[in-house]
Amino acid sequence: MADMIKTATRDAYGKALAELGQEKDNLIVFDADLAGATKTSVFQKAFPDRHFDCGIAEGNMICAAAGASTMGLVPFASSFAMFAAGRAFEQVRNSIGYPHLNVKIGATHGGISVGEDGASHQCCEDFALMRSIPGMTVICPADGEEARMAVRAAYEMEGPVYLRFGRLAVPEFHEKNFNFQIGKGEILRDGTDVAIIANGLLVYEAIKAGEALAEQGINAMVINMATIKPLDEELVLAAAKKCGKVITCEEHSVIGGLGEAVCGLLSEKLPTIVRRIGVNDEYGHSGPAPELLKQFGLSAEHIVEVATELCK
Amino acid sequence: MTLSEKKQLQLTACNVRKGIIESTFNAKCGHPGGSLSATEMFTYLYFKEMNIDPSNPKWADRDRFVLSKGHTAPGLYSTLALRGYFPVEDLKTLRRIDSYLQGHPNMNTVPGIDMSTGSLGQGVSAAAGMALAAKHTGKNSRVYTLLGDGEIQEGQVWEAFMMAAHYHLDNFVAIIDNNGLQIDGNIKDVMSPYPIVDKLEAFGFKTIAINGHDFDEIEAALATARETKGQPTAIVMSTVKGKGVSYMENNAGWHGKAPNAAEYEQAMNELNATYAELEAN
Predict the structure, then answer these.
(1) Which domains does chain A have, with CATH numbers?
(2) Do A99 and B108 touch, CB atoms closer than 8 A?
(3) 3-class DSSP state for residue A307?
(4) Catalytic residue among A19, A23, A58, A186
(5) Using CB atoms within 10 A of its CB, is residue B275 exposed (0-12), middle (13-18) or buried (19+)?
(6) Tens digit of pLDDT at every position of chain B (281 positions)
(7) Cβ <8 Å between A63 and B156
(8) Which positions in chain B touch A66 (Cβ < 8 Å)?
(9) Cβ pair B163:A90 closer than 8 A
(10) What is the ipTM of this complex?
(11) Would you say the pTM of this structure is higher than 0.90?
């Protein structure tokens, strides 16, 4: 495992835009003075006349992208998750969501793995904000290849999509050109004792946890739920039915994200014991990303602990 | 424009005003004040200036209009109805639970609406995005957006203005309805945005100050905008909030209030008298 290739999903995002830009003339990109960090700079280098920097003005960028989409272009608007989903929430809601415009929001630096920049930049509320917008699709890919496929799928679908990418390099476990489908979860390990449903960088942690649990005789199912909305209800219900216990894992507040989406579904249709692993209604702080993830319990070790306790 | 053209525009503007009163009276709510102040501009844009086709509202190469001050939907709806986008009779359904005429413009329900607006400061950004996209794709479409003078207190408006100038969007025209009043009172008392013209010039706009109720001045300003290359144009129009209905004029109280039955009758009588007078001349 130590020799696995690692990619930050933001890097994959930038490359995917540049790759897709070769095929699709109507793809344009907006950024708000963060092209070097969001990696839209990769697209900018390839297609300078299709990349529009809006300066440090995210609200205007989101609405400008909305306007451009009405002219037949497919804009990807990028900033950090904190500013794209947070600062510009109401612009996304009213100018993209309400008219249901074909804008893709590429938000990087989601979660606490932003690291040293600290709490002001560590957005753990974006799933909650974006999920609450009617008609918004919300995706958080787990590795570089999934990020690439998600960008392509988002382009192909008509309507608003929120894509969350990370800053930290994470292990690549998807095959090239695997079959990614928006709204479909992916069973990475079958099991019967507990279903671990994760997204983003917690998916690989869940895979590792599944292996560790197997050594203890706990047979965990591991699911990658890259699409938070619309949730793959069928798969969640099937997993809950089969395992009887569910753990959700996300680099996001336990409020309003994948965990609550799963709980909302299960409490109505198949009451099941659920443990939510996420950021527990608190702010992050500065520090190296790997250490922060450990400290906040966003790790395979913590998943194993919770699963072991749950399966006693 | 010829005298008869001007007279026709004035008659149409009078009908637009009647539609505003009719719709807000029937809705028992809505925003007549800022609809009436912008009536001549609505009329000129849709009946003379813009390259549009009411029988094909989604025509790709049309000019665009974004009502950034979305609450004045009654003014835009009345203009669109008279221009043939939908039946004038439907204006009476404004804001009803089963009506497509939403309280604020909805591009997915109302024919002729180019952008959903209502949250102040956002429409102008969308319009700038449209202008950018039109230039990028080599379309000749021009993009017009109408803002309130209170609306420009929103910081995002200046972000949009910065972008329009930065990208040399000479197909972009921002029109500011300077009627001087907002919900809480006089704009200079609530939070002064003055000097508006100087600010826009500093932001890189070709800026033109006009009387927003004078069709000759509107025509000249829009012609200047069309001839201006390499920079966007701003038209700051001095207007009277509630224009055309005596008791609504220059009264902030009529920003977001509908006339009652007696007030409706008086307003219609005044507008009918104005119409008859225009026709007789």
Answers:
(1) 6-171 (3.40.50.970), 186-310 (3.40.50.920)
(2) yes
(3) helix
(4) A58
(5) middle
(6) 999 999 999 999 999 999 999 999 999 999 999 999 999 999 999 999 999 999 999 999 999 999 999 999 999 999 999 999 999 999 999 999 999 999 999 999 999 999 999 999 999 999 999 999 999 999 999 999 999 999 999 999 999 999 999 999 999 999 999 999 999 999 999 999 999 999 999 999 999 999 999 999 999 999 999 999 999 999 999 999 999 999 999 999 999 999 999 999 999 999 999 999 999 98
(7) yes
(8) 115, 125-126, 129
(9) no
(10) 0.97
(11) yes
